[in-house]
Design brief:
Radius of gyration: 22 Å
Largest sheet: none
Shape: elongated
Order of helices and strands: HHHHHH
Oligomer: single chain
Strand content: under 5%
Number of domains: 1
Structural class: mainly alpha
Number of strands: 0
Distance between the termini: 41 Å
Amino acid sequence: MDHQADRLHGAAEPPGPGYCPGSNSLTGSSDAGRYAGRCWRDESRQAAKVGRYVLANLLTSLIAGAGTFVWLLAFGVPYPIVLALMVAIFDLIPIVGSTAAGIIVSLIALTVSVPVAIATAAFYITYRLLEDYLIAPRVIGRAVDVPATATIVAVLIGGAALGLLGALVAIPAAAAIDLLLQETVYPRLDQA
């Protein structure tokens, strides 16, 4: 069975010795077989990092929803459960999600009073800063094993370069680059 058919049918094992994108397998090198196991392991580690990224993103969204619920309950804003759920869902959208949710909740807080709406807007501004620079880099960075500074830089570069899509893929891309560096560059530096 050829490699394309394996890929299409979702083979549970590596296609065979010598198969590894980027290896010497096309050159007929005698050591191409040793790359196959490492390549398969690297792909599994990358998939695990992406899965942990998704779970960490869900955790930060749950924190946003729980914080919103407590705030809205304390100030008597109507529909606290529905709004907290909306905030948690919107928070899954990087960069603009939590901002849009904060605006919506602040507008609904106007039904209570203007000071409560202003306080709610201030809560969301503060929370957004805490989430962007403290909570998300630590939670997501720890989940994908990427330093917090690299997480922030990756999101800034990804968002600036590709907008919303860039921000979405920035942290998994940083994790993949980190894994690539650990497997290729750092061992060579240690040998030198």
